[in-house]
Amino acid sequence: MVRYATGDYFLRANLLKSLVTIGCSHSHKGGDDKHSYELTYDVKKVTEGIRGSPVTAKFGGSYKLTDTISLKTKLEAAKEVMWNLSWVQKVDDHLTITAGDACNLTNMISDPKNMHYNFSV
What we know:
Blueprint: E1 2-4, E2 7-14, E3 19-28, E4 33-42, E5 55-64, E6 69-77, E7 81-92, E8 95-104, H1 105-110, E9 118-120
Antiparallel strand pairs: 1-2, 2-3, 3-4, 4-5, 5-6, 6-7, 7-8, 8-9
């Protein structure tokens, strides 16, 4: 891992699954907002990734909107593109309410009936 003031950059390998990943994580607004990016290459080409390639990508973000509200998002691109979003509201020290949704963005465009949209509270 290489650390800079703007973020952490890394390269890792999973020898058992033959995966190599490169990525970075960084913060904004004094550390309240965070982003992470990863690209993974399947050396054995077992996993079908983006557009049939052995490459997959991930993005994650966490954003502090107010002292009691945060927003979290995740995007994973492989054979299909999956998206998750969570809204977290801290009511007090004993109660936090989370609302989230998730869907298959690939199917949202190509096959809307099968986009597997989920909403939860």
